[in-house]
Amino acid sequence: VQLVESGGGLVQPGGSLRLSCEGSGFTFSNWLMMWFRQSPGKEREWVASITSTSSHADYEDSVKGRFTISRDNNKNTLFLQMDNLKPEDTAVYSCYVFTDRAYWGPGTQVTVSS
């Protein structure tokens, strides 16, 4: 199983970014996928989840209404659209799947600063 994130960067408060996570080595369309994030000095926290068929998505309270999780099972890719970004969203964002065990991608840095 391999997960590779992309799309991070530096953005001003109020700006937007779209993260991607490409999965390989497993049947992507079968599994619930998640995004997590970790800020310096803090524990990793769950951000959003999406079911295998995109029938249902859940969000951490602080990102509700600003972030949208989605997936393209034909391209084995998970997305996180992040709008109205705030400085407190600064973190390394990683995608996650649990198949036979937990798998994490290496993460992509998102920095929100003026």
Describe this structure in words.
There is one protein chain. The chain is mostly beta strands and 114 residues long. Helix content is 0%, strand content 52%. The chain contains no helices and 11 strands. The strands form 2 sheets. Strands 2, 4, 5, 6, 9, 10 and 11 form a 7-stranded mixed sheet that branches. A 4-stranded antiparallel sheet has the order 1-3-8-7, with no helix packed on it. A hairpin with a 6-residue loop joins strand 5 (45-50) and strand 6. The termini are far apart.
How many distinct helices?
Answer: 0
Instruction: Give me the strand/helix succession.
Output: EEEEEEEEEEE
**Major sheet details:** 7 strands, mixed
Q: Which overall shape is indicated by the principal axes computed on the Cα atoms?
A: globular
Q: How many strands appear in the DSSP assignment?
A: 11
What would the average pLDDT be, to the nearest integer? 97
Give the uncertain stretches in residue-range form.
none
- Considering DSSP H and I runs of 4 or more, what fraction of the residues is helical? under 10%
* Class from secondary-structure proportions: mainly beta
Strand content: over 45%
Radius of gyration: 13 Å
Q: Give the N-to-C terminal Cα separation.
A: 37 Å
